[in-house]
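check this:
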Amino acid sequence: MRLSGPVRIRTTAVAVVMATIITLSACNRGRHRVLEVNYVSAPQAALRDQVAAIYNRVGTVKNGERVEVLDHEKRFARVRTASGLEGWIEQRYLVDQKTYDGLQKLTQDNQSAPAQAPGILRNDTNLHITPGRETDHLYQLASGAKVAILKRATAEKQPGAAHPVPKPVEAKQSAKASGPVLEDWWLVRDANGHVGWVLARMVDVDAPLDIAQYAEGQRFVAFFVLDEVPDGDKKIPQYLCVLTDPHDGLPYDFDQVRVFTWNVRKHRYETAYREHGLNGVLPVTVTSENFEKEGTLPVFVLRVTDDAGNVIERKYKLNTPIVRRVLAPGETVAKPAFRRHR
C-alpha cells in the first residue's frame, strides 16, 4: 500500500525523532557507564566541575569513600559518589579495588591479634598494605592518633628517601655493613579497627614514664601489665618490658626483657628480672595460671629463635618479686633464669 504525501512525511518525521532519542539515550549511557570502582586515599579531596585551571568545587569526598569512575582525562578521573554527586578528582587521590580488598583482608586477619603496646603517631601517616614507602596505601592517620602495635617487619629503604624525623648517627653506626639499608615497620590497628603497616620511626611506643625512665638507652618494643599490688589506697601495676637496641633492620624483634616489680616498703620500681641475648619474635603472650601451692600467678610466654632457626616458646611465672622459668616436661636450663637487680 502506498502512503499519501502528508502521511509519508509524518511517518518519516516520527522515525527521525525515534532515532534521535535512541542515539541520545545511547550517548547518555556511554557518558555514565561505570569503568571501575575506586576509593579515596586522601583525608579529603575536592570534586571539580571541570578539568581546568579555573573550576568550581561541586563537593568533597573523604578518606576511604567508595566512588564509581565514569571517565578519565589526563591525571583526573570523573567519579560519582554513593549519593549521586559527580565531579572530577585528581587520580593520585584514588586507589583501586585490589588495594581496598587487600587492606580489608589484612584487617580481618589481624582484628583479634593481641596488642603488644600502645603507640602515638608523630606525623600524618599512611596505612600501607605491605611494608615499604612505595607500597599501596588507602587510609591516612592524623598526627597524634593512637594505635595498637601488633607486629614488626623490615623493608629496604628506597634510594633517596628522606627521613621525616632525622636522628643523629651514633659513633658505632659509622661503619656500615654491606647490603641494603633496612627500615623497621610496625603493623598497627587504629581506633576505627583499620589495620596496616606504618614506618616505625613515625610511632612512639607509649610506655609509662615510671618505667620508660629505666630504658638505659634501649628501645621499648612492647610492654605488658602482669598484675597489680596494693600500696596504701592505690594499686600499682607490675610490668613486663620487651626491649632492643635502638637500630632498624635487626634480625630479631627484641633481644632483652625486664620485669619491674613494685617495692611496697620503698614505694618504687625495681628490676626483678632481666634477660639478654634473646632472638625474640613477636607476639609476646601474657596470661595467668594456677600453680597449686603458689596459687594463681601471672605468666608470660616469649617466642625465641633457637640456633637451628626454629621458633620455640619459653614460659615464665611471676611470684612477686621472683620470676622463674616454667619448664616443659623434659626441658632443662643450664643456668638459673632468675637474677635480681636493683
The two ends are 114 Å apart (CA to CA). Residues 207-342 form one domain. Confidence is low (pLDDT under 50) at residues 11-30, 163-176, 335-342.
